[in-house]
Amino acid sequence: MMKAIKGVKDLLPEDTPRWRLIEETARRWALCYGFQEIRVPIFETTTLFARSLGATTDIVEKEMYTFADRDGTSLTLRPEGTAGTVRAFIEHNRAADPRPQKYCYLGPMFRHERPQAGRLRQFHQFGVESFGISDPRADVEVISLLWRLLSDLTLPGLTLDINNLGYAEDRARYAPLLVAFLKGVERRLCGNCLRRIETNPLRVLDCKVPECRLATDAAPRLADSLSSTAREHFDHVLTGLRSVGIPFHLNHRLVRGLDYYCLTAFEVTCSHLGAQNAVGAGGRYDGLVEQLGGTAVPAVGFAVGLERIALMLPQEVPLPTIPRVYVAAFGVQAVDVGFVLLDELRRAGVPADMDFRAASLKAHLRQADRLGVLYTVFLGDDEVAKGSATLRNMQTKEQEGLAFSELSSTLLARLSHRP
Ligand code: ATP
Ligand code: MG
Asked: Cα separation of 363 and 189, whole Å?
């Protein structure tokens, strides 16, 4: 049997209504906050991701799906949405447009990770990017959008953690202090963290291994190395969050995995998700546009994982617009006529379906029940001869004769009076 690739999932018809609800909610809130949809390619040159995410990040070191194009160019399936959006922003010279440049995107991302619940190799993100605004209110705006949309989906047990990562200079000042401390507790750190001391020491603070957390409890704090401008920006973000009533927790251990972040970094977790409890995350990335060849444009954004939202979405989502009419034909000629009537119904906007076999009354009624239709149109060869059909109301069981010519208008009128 052929099987899907490990860590890659099918969404079956019973799953897609739930997904559509999430997608529609996300897009609706984004539009409401002035973000407009952008669609960027699923694959880009490997250089784009290596240069934007940072060479020593988990993603670039071990998670990218990278392959050679026929001419030898190295290409990569996008592991996240910011790099491509920034590339498009620069390529289309959007910095020259005086209108706010606020984008949202939704689509599949690819990372070679160990598959488990809420962690896949092809997964989906919804994200937003706000370009050109250094005002801390832009940070508050994206956090607020994230919080409102997750709350609207009634996700249970949400927590917003936030931290100030300062500027690159602040972190450069802090790193040697941290490295000196980490070298003193080396024996107690996991293998990953040992490696990170050299490559990306701040990430050690973010390690989920309990022993690593204990070992770094007394580590020097980045907050104590921050410049006054970095502090001021962050204070304004916190004030803004309070003013619009968004609850947050200061978390000095929160370090984003991607190198391009500065100042505000945040993450939303859900207590009902087990080990993979991060729903979404983001932050400010003022240096990235310039780093990728554009002008210096400040930016802030977030991305949420749709699989994790789908796992937590509490309510059952009903199937939308299922066929409401079933055409049941008896006899070969009736099936032919029924097929034409079926097409007329659909063209008139009546959701309808048909079993193309000339089945028995019992078999047709069983199928109509399975489909949960409101009406069944019965069609036998003698009815075909008269140019009429029998319409059965499946709830009241009442039946009536109707000329073919009246069928679609009658059904359309009756269905439009129903919810
Ligand atoms: P994690 O710490 O869970 O690996 P991350 O820091 O790698 O998350 P981001 O790159 O910030 O995650 O992506 C934002 C969101 O995308 C995450 O909070 C999560 O909901 C989702 N996400 C990330 N990787 C995966 C994956 N492999 N499968 C499903 N969802 C994912
Ligand atoms: Mg990850």
From this structure: 67
Nearest CA to ligand 1 atom 9: 281
Residues 71 and 162 in one domain: yes
| Atom 6 of ligand 1: nearest residue by CA position | 257
Rounded Cα gap, residues 38 and 45, in angstroms: 19
Q: How many domains does the chain have?
A: 2
How many residues in the chain?
Answer: 419
pLDDT band at 77 (very low <50, low <70, confident <90, very high): very high
Supply angle C-alpha 255, 237, 102, rounded to 5: 85
Residue 2 within any structural domain of the chain: no
Q: Which atom of ligand 1 is nearest to the CA of 303?
A: 14
Q: Which ligand is nearest to the CA of 276?
A: 1
For residue 256, the ligand closest to its alpha carbon is 1
Looking at the CA of residue 277, tell me the nearest atom of ligand 1: 3
Among candidates 268, 310, 226, which has minimal Cα distance to 11? Answer: 310
Q: What is the pLDDT of residues 127-143, one digit of tens each?
A: 999 999 999 999 999 99
Of 135, 114, 26, 129, which is closest to residue 80 (Cα–Cα)?
129
Residue written as tokens 């047990």?
A: 157
Contact residues of ligand 1, CB 6 A cut-off: 80, 111, 113, 118-120, 123, 125, 257, 276, 278-281, 303-305, 307-308
- pLDDT the model gives residue 419: 54
Name the pTM for this structure.
Answer: 0.90
144 with 264, same domain: the answer is yes
Range of the domain at 371: 325-412
Q: Check if the beta carbon of residue 268 is closer than 8 Å to that of residue 158.
A: yes
Is residue 213 included in any domain, yes or no? no
Atom number, ligand 1, closest to the C-alpha of residue 80: 10
| Domain presence at residue 254 | yes
82 and 104, same structural domain?
Answer: yes
**What's the CATH code of the domain at 343?**
3.40.50.800
Do 358 and 258 share a structural domain?
A: no
In the reported structure, the alpha carbon of residue 23 is separated from the centroid of ligand 1 by a whole-number distance in angstroms of 17
Range 219-233 average pLDDT: 95
Strand partners, 116: 119
